[in-house]
Design brief:
This protein is an all-alpha fold and about 600 residues long. About 70% of the residues lie in helices and about 0% in strands. A two-stranded antiparallel sheet has the order 1-2.
Amino acid sequence: MTLIDWGIVYLYFLVVAGIAIYYSKRAGRNTSEFFLSGRRMSWWLAGISMVATTFAADTPMAVTELVAENGIAGNWLWWNFAFGGMLTVFFFARLWRRCGIQTDVEFVEVRYSGRAAAWLRGIKAVYFGLLLNVVIIGWVSLAMETAIKVLWPDLTIFGQTAFVVGNLTISAALVVVSGLVILVSIFALLSGLWGVAVTDVMQFILAMAGSVLMAIFVLRVPEVGGIAGLKSQLPVETFRFFPTFGETTGAAAAFALSIPAFVAFIGIQWWSSWYPGAEPGGGGYNAQRMMGTSSERDATYSALLFTIAHYCIRPWPWIIVALASLVLYPKLVDSREGFVLVMRDVLPVGVLGMVFAAFLAAFMSTISTQLNWGVSYLVNDCWRRFIKPDRSERHYVRVGRVFTFAVGFLSILLATQLESISQAWTLILTASAGLGTVLILRWYWWRINAWSELVATLAPILLVLMTLIGVPIPGLQAPFPSNLFVVVGLTTALWLTATFLTKPTDQSTLEKFYKLVRPAGPGWTSVATLYPDIHPDATISTMIRQWAAGVIVVYACLFTTGYLILGNILPGIVVLAVAVVSTLYLRQTFSSSS
């Protein structure tokens, strides 16, 4: 890193600080401004903010690891979430905006009734807003620590490579990351969602530009030799978009994926497991963005923009860099480091500073959103609801700012204990398996109650704990994702049992919810007959057709880009034609139902 590179990084920080200061006065007015941007966000701003948040420091490194282990097809670990993303576009985006709530946890007491609903709201606020949020920020910080260690292996602070605080050993790299988290916390607590979202746009543009530049420069390296060089030096199985099955010998064995594992990815994971940015039913910070838009139409378009950009635009620069890293660094013990090594060894002066600033942008975008989103739960669904219910708006904004700093601090403490990003990913996916069914059905089936969701939330966590202590339940000890079959099956059986053994939600609450949200489908027939003048936006069959067309558009665009980049022109043209036809159909049906 030369003086020019550092100058670019410093300029980036000055711009981010300026945005935070500019929006600080507006964010301090009330919690609606602080957590929902006053519900005046445009669809493109909300959509880009969602994409920027899911582009973290850990993401390109994780993609590099997936490609090293299973080739391009290894990305189905997260490509499968496109099914759920399109479900949010057509089934949930309008409904989230229509609810008029501040957080998706507040939805609990809009949809359910009684003490069980209150308990569920409080538990979810602490579990998702604090516990899981700290884990997520912790693993993103761990990824940033890894990047700094690779870029500056001899980094010292005050002559020390590490510091011992009690029982904690903190590397110099993690000290730097801690400083960044504190800085992001200050920006987030000053500017609220307005500042976070506006900064996200700049960060996304910078991060995408950096990724594209990395892909271009690494293909020019003589040892790589462009796309043709990659194809000549790597096994052909590396470039397959779908995994090979059952291979036990030869080069294909290294990239083989079991049929049950692939079925679990595309048939179970996307609708059953909670994951940040890919929540079944569109919850989390995506719901926060949709609820912060200026209209239901904006909410829908923001979700559509996010899904297309997330799966069609972002992946290929990362994948190209990952493939090149396999050629340049074939003996890496930790394949994730390949992405950062390419950054360090390939990029020229000036470009390195820009790409490193882009890496910082990806990191800071995710951290700022996680802090704002998680703290919205702690303030709105815990502090305001149960501890101090009758205070001023400015009081809650001040509390939110204190919580922002506290969550950031706890995340750094956890980062000192984490060792593996991929293990954290699979742990969260397993510990929420089966919850997604309830998160989807609660909108479209009146019989779901607070006990259904409470059991679905806690059951997979208990099953994971049983796995950790070695309880011999058949299939529970299977490796991820094959273990999802058992966890989802048991969780579903438990929450269904709880549903029918407990009382339904009060009739008055059900009627109020139906009039507010206007859900479609036969799941609300008993309530809908009471209000014949209320009509849903579209029928379930129409939304299913739109969802299917949207899924085809996403995967067709994803594979078209891949085929054309890799020089497979004829398959690329064929898949492009499928994408065009599906887009035209989607546009027609979407316009007629809007």
